[in-house]
Amino acid sequence: xxxxxxxVRNAWYGRISGCQLGKPxxxxxxxxxxxxxxxxxxxxxxxxxxDYVGYVDSEHSSDIQKECCREFxxxxxxxxxxxxxxxxxxxxxxxxxxxxxxxxxxxxxxxLPVASTYTAERAAYKILLEKGDEWxxxxxxxxxxxxxxxxxxxxxxxxxxxxxxxxxxxxxGDVSLAAKLAETDARLSHRGDGVYGAxxxxxxxxxLATQSPDAALQAGxxxxxxxxxxxxxVQLGFDLAGNPEGGAVIRQHYDGMSPVHTLNNLAIVVWxxxxxxxxxxxxxxxxxxxxxxxxxxxxxxxALWGLQGDEIPAFWLEPWQGRVGLSLAGYDEIDVExxxxxxxxxxxxxxxx
Length: 353
Hints:
single chain, mainly alpha, 2 strands
């Protein structure tokens, strides 16, 4: 069994690499859809997707994030998926397992620029700004319920799900605690399946530390309502594992749904991960090539794979050179070794508590 340090190292390596794989084509996928994504990857000679995406001039070149393409990648460029992972680490360092949703809200206001938020997070942020005098001061004024922030039209989209990973990494084997922490964070901006997707991802990560992948999936499902659409999305992805057409089946099943919804992306994550439990490259490659929210799915699959798999191939790590870009107040770049050391230290502290 892998050591805690090995699992955490793999999780950070996997999350960052998967994120950077999906990042250059994120806007293309979401703005122009799966056919445009496939056309670009075909033109670039990238299918099946098994390396960082190369850059080519194309009809949609303006939607390609060139600095993240293979020829130009020198660091992990700032991305909300990695911002939220680091923010979760900071929250747990400051507050431990007693972290509250109010702590999450205050951290957003102090550290998270509004321009680095999207959909549900930006909607919740707007409410926090409007109601700041009622909740933010340390003295506080009664009367404002933070759950008001989750009353927004995006509260079942993917935002909470991409904030959840670290809560599982630092609770190896403690599925209930991982689920509790993820829910505490998620409910600031999300409800229903938006929360359940986050809870499942964190719980699955915690379970993978001590259980087989199949048992871990069942443990993760045990933390969310069995009759929820999120549970059905997980089951759909798992049932399609090993089917090379799984991505197409999932896109058709959720036809018309936003490409940044929790459900369709959660199904893609489970399908890609469980199709390639022994092949990191194929897992993140197929997750990203399936479309929808490419950087989020690459990041989540990469981290979950890292918690249960062997070493991640060096060619995924070398281009970004351990440099992790951030867009948080006071943090613009951090070395991945520092992230690993701090996460391991936190996990050991929580285990002793």
